[in-house]
Specification:
- With 221 residues, this protein is an alpha+beta fold.
- The protein has 2 domains: 3-74 and 198-219, no CATH class; 97-184, no CATH class.
- 54% of the residues lie in helices and 17% in strands.
- The protein is built from 7 helices and 7 strands.
- It has helices at 3-9, 11-33, 52-90, 110-113, 169-189, 191-208, 213-219; strands at 39-40, 45-46, 97-98, 105-106, 125-132, 136-147, 150-159.
- It is elongated.
- The model has no long low-confidence stretch (mean pLDDT 82).
């Protein structure tokens, strides 16, 4: 099944997204319109709450809970989308290119890979790209080594914050810029990114609307 089809057919993710958006919109409506409900019958709601702040706190807690639940169900898709755009980045010959004739490695990542690139012998395979924190960036790869029971595959990684004569801070900055461009391209060209991020944005906006902005502004005026 294609990724888009699997994403659209995931009923559990869709239900969490719908619940998060619904409650967030109710909270936004209460905050921005000052709506009060005084009575209720089968078709019309007019309910008056003696403690409006209690309702507000309840909705805030509900939005926080649903954000966590939605994130739990969305995480596998975040990981798959991350892998999709990082693979596209690594397929860019300006970033990484392996020449099958001279078995050399070229592109922006050349300097980072040179210390582990064994020309004419066993070379790294399955190159991957991972991020950790704000500036933690790593290349992951696998290599066949001789073990106690014969050849075995080992998985290793390169910390791209370790500068060498072949891999400089400027190279790292260029890589971050390339990464940013591929992330933006992913959001523009693939709707699944916005479908995943949208509920987070609405939930966070709803929570921010409950903060005492006017009181804070008055402190500086």
């Amino acid at each position: 099944m294609a990724f888009s089809d699997e994403f659209d057919s995931d009923e559990r993710l869709a239900s969490k997204r719908k619940a998060l958006i619904t409650v967030s919109m109710i909270l936004l409506s209460l905050e921005f319109t000052g709506a009060t409900i005084k009575e209720a019958n089968t078709f019309i709601f007019k309910i008056e709450f003696s403690n409006q702040h209690g309702l507000l706190y309840l909705l805030v807690a509900t939005v926080l809970y649903l954000l966590v639940r939605y994130h739990n169900y969305a995480m596998p898709y975040h990981q798959r989308l991350y892998k999709l755009w990082t693979n596209r980045m690594l397929e860019d010959t300006d970033v990484f290119y392996k020449d099958h004739e001279d078995e050399g490695v070229y592109g922006l990542l050349q300097g980072a890979l040179l210390p582990v690139w064994d020309y004419g012998h066993q070379q790294p395979s399955g190159l991957g790209y991972t991020a950790s924190g704000l500036l933690g960036r790593y290349l992951t790869y696998s290599v066949m080594v001789e073990g106690r029971h014969g050849d075995e595959m080992q998985f290793r990684k390169i910390d791209l914050r370790n500068w060498t004569k072949d891999w400089s801070r400027m190279d790292f900055v260029k890589l971050i810029w390339v990464e940013f461009k591929y992330q933006v391209d992913g959001f523009v060209r693939h709707r699944e990114h916005l479908d995943l991020i949208g509920p987070y944005l609405i939930g966070i906006l709803a929570l921010m609307s409950t903060l005492p902005w006017q009181s804070w502004v008055s402190l500086f005026t």
